Amino acid sequence: MIIFDLACKQQHSFEGWFQSLAAYDDQAGKRVISCPQCGSTEIRRVPSVLHLASSSGSSPVANKEALPAAAAGTLAALQQLVSAIVSKCEDVGSDFAQEARKIHYLDAPLRSIRGTASDDDYEGLREEGIDVLRLPIVKKEDLN
Q1: Which helix or strand (DSSP H or E) is residue 115 part of?
Q2: How far apart, in Å, do the first and last CA atoms of the chain sit?
Q3: Structure confidence by residue, pLDDT tens digits, 56-110
Q4: 125 pLDDT exceeds 50?
Q5: Of 68, 92, 83, which is closest to residue 137 (Cα–Cα)?
Q6: Residues 40 and 8: beta-carbon distance below 8 Å
Q7: Which parts of the chain fold into alpha helices (H)?
């Protein structure tokens, strides 16, 4: 899942969640994305206010106080959402892919699980039609 900051021709800003960049491009091309404020389908991607990590693993944000209030609030909401989801899931650790398959094929009881999976395992699950979601785990130490 990828989140893009978007804006319409009236400069209304909002987020869009997409499976991939290609999914965004497809939806934008078909004009099925609309502004929640005015309904415009003339949408474009805009630079993100907040980047939590760079390729070097360090944050480009010098300190949390430098973040706009809206970005800090969004981060807090994301942390709260992830925490709520994680607290309601059984941790199956590195057995995630195998357990997800068992649940999908009804070889194990239906329940919410969490754990770790390699990129290959994740893609394999998606190709089998097994709905999985990668969640960002944002730690306070990653913000400074």
Answers
A1: strand 113-115
A2: 25
A3: 444 444 444 555 555 666 777 777 877 787 788 899 999 999 999 999 999 999 9
A4: yes
A5: 83
A6: yes
A7: 21-29, 69-87, 96-104, 119-127
Q: What is the DSSP letter of 45?
A: E
Question: What is the DSSP secondary structure assignment for residue 33, as one 8-state letter?
Answer: -
* Residue range 22-67, pLDDT digits in tens: 889 999 999 999 999 999 999 998 876 544 444 444 444 444 455 5
For residue 4, which phi and psi values (nearest 5 degrees)? -115, 140
Identity of residue 142? D
104 or 140, greater pLDDT: 104
Question: b/e map of 73-111 (b: 16 or more CB within 10 Å)?
Answer: ebbeebeeeeeeeeeeeeebeeebbebbbebbeeeeeee
Residue 80 is encoded by which pair of tokens? 């709260």
- Cα separations in angstroms, 84 against 25, 89, 90, 115: 31, 9, 12, 15
- The arithmetic mean of pLDDT across residues 115-120, rounded, is 90
Q: How is residue 31 written in tokens?
A: 């004009």
CA distance 65 to 101: 43
The C-alpha atoms of residue 68 and residue 75 are separated, in whole angstroms, by 11
